[in-house]
């Protein structure tokens, strides 16, 4: 069996590594050159894209911003999972909002801005604290603007007037006073079976994910079930096949969808060592029509992103149950270079293990880690 992945970054590489033990061959597509490459070495395979499509048992994506003509070409084969509509919903915040509204899924109050004159009504409708998001091509905090006062909106008006808002509208969202950001990853099979992973708690810095912890602290059966129900509603509505990520805001016992990602996701990397089946293997299983795997957790996990940094001590892998995943990229600011998975038997012991990890890292590149380690040490969460 062969799987062709559109996109040739670290997610394709990790799908390749998860698929190999199943006897599944994964190739990737550099979508900028439309060249079929090896997911690890990134070297061209010499196989044409049309031949790779023909040879594939299934075709999938590692990120949602694949050029639309490539998606439509892949869709003609009947092998593309998830489907084009699902991918486009994840790539376009306007379509995403329509999907959430159609399925009555709670999300942030918002306005769609396709002309600067519409800015005049934003504060009256949403209040002074607003986040503006480009409807397409935004990620890791890019394509976002925040205001806390009406005066700040006036300052943004000129910048927005230079954008083509007809082509790429803005979503203006009311800033919610949420308790924490969490995410749920799950999978839906071709026959409609849905399985979900445990909720993960996510810490961001400058719009970029830095640390995920799963299961979340203070996890209740009610909260997990609410998240599972949201996932099942969305996945079934889209006739989705594969792994889907749903990012959520928690306000008390209520959950609001922030955004979705129609693919394996950074906040699910903890599953590589923290679950019976990783998100990457689960996605391969789903798109090939194989039985979905168990999502039972193995202890308590933290995933720590390595961002814009190579100057850490690799002796950190000497700490028991600490695992380094390196992507092999050239370093640059805000670039995800790799991640570290840490496993423990309780949240408190996970905090202790993160304190050990800190000794091997330049903390200026890991601004959320020490605070999270301290928080977890004080936790009375799960013991496995």
Automatic annotation (TrEMBL):
**SUPFAM superfamilies recorded:** Glutathione synthetase ATP-binding domain-like, PreATP-grasp domain, Rudiment single hybrid motif
Q: Name the enzyme's class.
A: ligase
- This entry's Enzyme Commission designation comes to 6.3.4.18
One Pfam short name: ATP-grasp
Known catalytic reactions? 5-amino-1-(5-phospho-beta-D-ribosyl)imidazole + hydrogencarbonate + ATP = 5-carboxyamino-1-(5-phospho-D-ribosyl)imidazole + ADP + phosphate + 2 H(+)
- Write down the superkingdom of origin: Bacteria
Q: Which residues form the ATP-grasp domain?
A: 97-288
| Keyword tags | ATP-binding, Ligase, Nucleotide-binding, Purine biosynthesis
One GO biological process term is: 'de novo' IMP biosynthetic process
Q: Which GO terms describe its molecular function?
A: 5-(carboxyamino)imidazole ribonucleotide synthase activity; ATP binding; metal ion binding; phosphoribosylaminoimidazole carboxylase activity
What pathway does the UniProt record associate with this protein?
Answer: Purine metabolism; IMP biosynthesis via de novo pathway; 5-amino-1-(5-phospho-D-ribosyl)imidazole-4-carboxylate from 5-amino-1-(5-phospho-D-ribosyl)imidazole (N5-CAIR route): step 1/2
Keyword Transmembrane helix set for record: no
Looking at the UniProt record for this protein, which Gene Ontology cellular component terms does it annotate, in alphabetical order?
cytosol
- Residues annotated as binding ATP are 93, 133, 138-144, 181, 204, 258-259
- Tell me the InterPro entries matching this sequence: ATP-grasp, ATP-grasp_carboxylate-amine, ATP_grasp_subdomain_1, PreATP-grasp_dom_sf, PurK, PurK_C, PurT/PurK_preATP-grasp, Rudment_hybrid_motif
Report quaternary structure and partners.
Homodimer.
Q: What does this protein do?
A: Catalyzes the ATP-dependent conversion of 5-aminoimidazole ribonucleotide (AIR) and HCO(3)- to N5-carboxyaminoimidazole ribonucleotide (N5-CAIR).
Entry's family note: Belongs to the PurK/PurT family.
Q: PANTHER family under this entry?
A: PHOSPHORIBOSYLAMINOIMIDAZOLE CARBOXYLASE, PURINE BIOSYNTHESIS PROTEIN 6/7, PUR6/7
Q: What is this protein called?
A: N5-carboxyaminoimidazole ribonucleotide synthase
Write down the species.
Brumicola pallidula DSM 14239 = ACAM 615
Q: What is the gene name?
A: purK
């Amino acid at each position: 069996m062969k799987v062709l992945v559109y996109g040739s970054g670290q997610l394709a590489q990790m799908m390749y590594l998860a698929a190999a033990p199943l006897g599944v061959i994964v190739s990737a597509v550099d979508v900028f050159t439309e060249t079929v490459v090896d997911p690890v070495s990134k070297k061209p395979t010499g196989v044409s894209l049309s031949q790779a499509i023909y040879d594939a048992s299934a075709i999938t994506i590692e990120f949602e911003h694949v050029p639309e003509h490539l998606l439509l070409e892949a869709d003609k084969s009947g092998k593309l999972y998830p489907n084009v509509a699902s991918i486009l919903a994840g790539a376009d915040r306007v379509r995403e909002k329509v999907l959430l509204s159609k399925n009555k899924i709670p999300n942030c109050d918002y306005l769609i801005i396709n002309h600067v004159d519409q800015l005049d009504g934003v504060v009256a409708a949403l209040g002074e604290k607003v986040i503006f998001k480009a409807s397409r091509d935004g990620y890791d905090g890019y394509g976002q603007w925040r205001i806390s006062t009406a005066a700040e909106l006036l300052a943004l008006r000129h910048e927005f007037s230079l954008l083509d808002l007809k082509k790429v509208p803005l979503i203006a969202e009311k800033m919610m006073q949420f308790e924490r950001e969490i995410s749920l990853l799950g999978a839906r099979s071709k026959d409609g079976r849905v399985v979900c992973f445990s909720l993960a708690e996510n810490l961001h810095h400058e719009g970029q994910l830095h640390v995920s912890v799963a299961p979340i602290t203070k996890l209740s059966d009610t909260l997990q079930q609410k998240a599972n129900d949201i996932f099942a509603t969305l996945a079934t509505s889209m006739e989705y096949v594969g792994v889907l990520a749903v990012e959520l805001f928690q306000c008390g016992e209520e959950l609001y969808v922030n955004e979705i990602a129609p693919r394996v996701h950074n906040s699910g990397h903890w599953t590589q060592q923290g679950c019976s089946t990783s998100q990457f293997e689960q996605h391969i299983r789903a798109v090939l029509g194989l039985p979905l795997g168990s999502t039972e957790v193995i202890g308590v996990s933290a995933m720590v992103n390595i961002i814009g940094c190579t100057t850490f001590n690799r002796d950190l892998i000497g700490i028991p149950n600490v695992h380094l995943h390196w992507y092999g990229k050239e370093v640059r600011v805000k670039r995800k270079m790799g991640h570290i998975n840490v496993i423990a038997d309780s949240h408190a012991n996970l905090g202790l293990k993160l304190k050990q990890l800190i000794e091997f890292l330049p903390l200026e590149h890991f601004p959320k880690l020490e605070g999270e380690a301290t928080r977890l040490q004080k936790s009375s969460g799960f013991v496995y």
